Amino acid sequence: MIAVRRASHMLALVALLASSNTLASADEQPAAESDAAAARRAARLANMKLLAAQIQMRKAEADETPFFNLRPEPLFRYSDQPRGFIDATLWAWGPAGSTGRPAVLAKVEAAITPANEPYWHFCVVSLDDELVTADFEGARRLATTKPGFELRKIPGAPEGAARPAARQRQMKDLAARFTATIYNTNPDTKRPEPQEMRLLATPIHRYADEAAGLWDGMIFGLTTNGTNPDMLFVIELRGDKLSSAKWKYGIVKMTIAEVHVRLDRDEAWMSPRNSPRETWESFVRKPREE
């Protein structure tokens, strides 16, 4: 009977994971497109996938360590027209066979300059507990000097629910307690101005690794322009046993802007402009051909 309950529990969790990822990937699909526009969109996605596949991620211990595996489809597709990102995708890498938190994420963005020059923009960030590296076209693009983030307990969090569907609601409720202010540069004044970020309606990714004491986890995105997740945070339920597991969070930056993140009304994390770069990096590739 215990085995049957565990199998039923895992099937329910797998179904929820699949549904949440499908929602995230389809979140920004236009309601209606012309055949030509749909073809361009499909071709751009294929190009972004080819570029993502060229980024080689691995743990930084030694060059002999295996490369992380790239997930076959993007976690999220978005745009940020005010900053010239006309189409973009967020990809995930992790150890072969892993069902837990991704080790590395990368944005692949089809961008255009104010002078209408098309180019590719990339942003790579670590979510790993150990040091990682990322190489692209023979160049080292990221070499982290510390873990991707620090997990902290969420004060006042409820006990983790036994059912996956109930935990999903708990994670969304916990995510709603986070707010943030970003200081983006005004294109006219060239000065940083505060903007309140908003939580993306759909979680970006859900994962679990019960054997490692990770009973559930979700990646959420915060944005200001379009649906570009400039800031990410994870919420995870961790512990040796589900009955005693605790909710924790970690914060990830994917922007050069100054950002202040609050949990309830208290500042929980901040980063000055263009810092820190210990766990993430951005770079470009020109030209971009449609």
Keyphrases for this structure?
20% helix; 6-stranded antiparallel β-sheet; globular; single chain; alpha+beta; 3 helices; 290 residues; 40% strand
* Annotation field: number of helices: 3
Structural class given helices, strands, pairing?
Answer: alpha+beta
**Proportion of residues in β-strands:** 35-45%
Overall pLDDT, averaged? 89
Q: Supply the number of structural domains.
A: 1
Low-pLDDT residue intervals, each spanning 5 or more residues: 1-23
Largest sheet: 6 strands, antiparallel
Report how far the terminal alpha carbons are from each other: 56 Å
Helix content: 10-25%
Helix-strand sequence: HHEEEEEEEEEHEEEEEEEEEE
How many strands appear in the DSSP assignment? 19
Assembly type of the chains comes to single chain
Tell the overall outline: globular
Rounded to an integer in angstroms, the radius of gyration calculated over CA atoms is 19 Å
